[in-house]
Structures are given as structure tokens and as C-alpha cells.
Design a protein that fits this description.
Shape: elongated
Low-confidence stretches: none
Number of domains: 2
Structural class: alpha/beta
CATH superfamily of the largest domain: Aldolase class I
Oligomer: single chain
């Protein structure tokens, strides 16, 4: 699978995992806080920072009826209307340019998730380098088509989607002009549990749709994200905040700066450990071979003496014959004097 260029950075299985810090609504309606989030994400080593481009009115209706209320008792947003949630969480459009400029200054890729065609037009006016499609919009084929026509890389989360729905989305994107596509395994619960994350889907998704794959992770901690790298994830997206204690619409399932730094470090280590299928000592291990067990004479012996369990032992280091010859050598005579502590070699027999 070819690597994908994102504003000078590469996403691919032969590259360290590409880490995206998702700001979402964790700016708490403060541009100063938003810019601080950008700075702390860069300090932690994130490759990119993502925001979201919508208004409450482009997302839903300001309607108090049941259809527009969040009624799930398990939801962290229960008893809010959709309109209220999006009013609280949206990133003012006039903030986008200063956020993206700060990202560029700090060496990160700054981009966004558009949620309707007006958002795409606005983001195009800012010349964003790529686009992210959220899971809930994965089946919005008109939006997929609109973004694909920009011919910029697309990152698509697939939470809740069947294989057939993903295929329809992928085909739509490719037919509309998308050449660089990344799919993210995602579980659309907030937070998500490891038991419901099913990251074994990642290599299957890569092979099925022949594209780069990754994980949009809503679980707490970093264990799931690190494990996903071993399964082929080349890109990891996690929500990010300055402090969960300070609140915010997504704060409860967001990483703090030290946790994001740990994510960057540990996913890179996981990627480095993959290597290739290999048996036998690696180059790094060759110097350790001398500490294997081998056969040694453990008592002074005269020519003609017989090797026994008392004078022949399997011990470290590894300068003598391999232990597999132990039973064969028992009862054999030595042909010359041998000092205690001598490694066994064929020429003493």
C-alpha cells in the first residue's frame, strides 16, 4: 500500500504511526484555550491537529421534540437537545485560520471535519491539506462526493458502518476523484469500551478496501491504540484536552498532554517492534550468544579419565559444545589432561 502525503508528512505502514489530536469542542468556546491546545499537542509530538467545521444550524434543527433530544441514559450528553450540544461544541469559523496558522508554525498538519457542503467551501477557501469525514457522515454520499472532488486526501471514520456501506462510500469517493483514501476503524460510543472496539477488523479492512487504515479511538487510555498498530494501523486519532477536570463536551474521553505524549512514544515503539518474520539471532543478539549454556569440564582430569555426571556439566557461558551432546559424551574417555573450567571440544576425546 503506497504511503500518503499529508502536507509533507507521510502516512504508511513503513512509517511511524501518524498521530492526530482531535480538539473537537474542548476549547470550551475560548480561542486562547484552542491555541493552547494546539501548542500542547505539538509539544506532545502529535503529527496533526483536527477541528470540526459546522454550526448548530448546519447540523440540525432547533426543535424541542423528542426526535431532537439526546435521551440515551448512558450518554454523557443526556437530556441535551442536539442543537444545544452543537451550539456548545462548535468551533467558530473565524477561529479556523488562526488555529491552522498556529499548527503550521509548530510543524503540525491542521485540518478539519466538514459536516455539510458550506463547510467544504469554507475550508477550501483556507486551502486545507486534507479532509476528515466523521462516522456519522460516512453514509452522506453527497458530502463524500463534494469532498472527493477537491482531490485532496480523505480520512473517513467508519463507526456503525456495515461493509456494504463502507464499500458504497469508498466507491463514491474514488469515482468522484479521491486518489488518497484512509479508513479508520471506529466505535461510535463516547467513551467506547475495549470489548466493543474489535480492532481485529483493521487488517481485514485494509485488505478489503486496498487502502491505508487506522483507528479513531474513543476508549480511555492508550492500550487499544497501541495494540492497533500491531494490526496495521498507520494512523491514530484521539480526542485531546488540556485537562479533563476543566470540563468540555468531549473532555471525559479525551487524552491530557502527558497521555498524548505517551501515546506518541508507545505507538512508535509498537511500530518499531513489528520488524519482519525472523528466526535465529538478530545482529543485536549475536554478542549474547556466548552466554548460552554449553558443556564444561568441572574437575581436573587426566588422559584416560572418563566423563561422568560429576565432571561434565551444562553451564554458562557458551564456549563449549552445545548441551545436546551431553548424553553422548557421558562415558567417553579424554585423550589428554583437561583442567577444571575448560570448555568441552571434540579434540579432548
Amino acid at each position: 500500500m503506497k504511503a500518503i502525503q499529508l502536507e509533507g508528512k507521510e502516512v504508511g505502514s513503513d512509517k511511524p504511526p501518524f498521530i492526530i489530536a482531535e480538539m473537537s469542542g474542548n476549547h470550551n468556546q475560548s480561542l486562547q484555550r484552542a491555541l493552547k491546545i494546539v501548542e500542547r499537542a505539538a509539544e506532545a509530538g502529535a503529527d496533526a491537529l483536527k477541528i470540526q467545521t459546522y454550526t448548530a444550524d448546519t447540523m440540525t434543527l432547533n426543535d424541542p421534540s423528542d426526535d431532537f433530544m439526546i435521551s440515551d441514559p448512558k450518554s454523557i450528553w443526556k437530556n441535551k437537545s442536539l442543537y444545544e450540544l452543537y451550539q456548545e461544541a462548535y468551533t467558530p469559523w473565524e477561529w479556523h485560520q488562526p488555529i491552522f496558522e498556529r499548527c503550521k508554525q509548530l510543524g503540525m498538519v491542521g485540518f478539519s471535519s466538514p459536516f455539510d457542503e458550506t463547510a467544504v467551501d469554507f475550508l477550501e477557501s483556507l486551502d486545507v491539506p486534507c479532509y476528515k469525514i466523521a462516522s456519522f457522515e460516512c453514509t452522506d454520499l453527497p458530502l463524500i462526493r463534494k469532498v472527493a472532488k477537491t482531490h485532496k486526501p480523505m480520512i473517513i471514520s467508519t463507526g456503525m458502518c456495515s461493509a456494504a456501506e463502507i464499500e458504497e462510500t469508498v466507491n463514491t469517493a474514488r469515482e468522484a476523484g479521491c486518489k488518497d483514501l484512509i479508513l479508520l476503524k471506529c466505535t461510535s460510543t463516547y467513551p467506547a469500551s475495549p470489548e466493543n472496539t474489535n480492532i481485529s477488523t483493521i487488517p481485514h479492512m485494509r485488505d478489503l478496501f486496498q487502502c491505508q487504515v487506522g483507528l479513531s479511538d474513543h476508549t480511555m487510555g492508550n492500550g487499544v491504540a497501541v495494540a492497533s498498530v500491531a494490526l496495521g494501523a498507520s494512523i491514530i486519532e484521539k480526542h485531546f484536552t488540556l485537562s479533563r477536570k476543566e470540563g468540555g463536551v468531549d473532555a471525559t474521553f479525551s487524552l491530557e498532554p502527558d497521555e498524548l505524549q505517551a501515546l506518541v512514544t508507545e505507538t512508535k515503539r509498537a511500530w518499531q517492534s513489528l520488524g519482519t518474520v525472523h528466526y535465529g539471532p538478530s545482529e543485536a543478539e549475536k554478542s549474547s550468544e556466548k552466554y548460552r549454556r554449553s558443556l564444561y569440564v568441572t574437575q581436573d582430569m587426566k588422559a584416560g579419565d572418563i566423563l561422568t555426571k560429576e565432571n561434565l556439566r551444562v553451564i554458562r557461558p557458551g564456549h563449549g559444545l552445545p548441551p545436546k551432546y551431553y548424553d553422548i559424551l557421558l562415558g567417553k574417555k579424554v585423550v589428554r589432561d583437561v583442567e577444571k573450567g575448560s570448555p568441552v571440544s571434540w579434540d579432548i576425546l
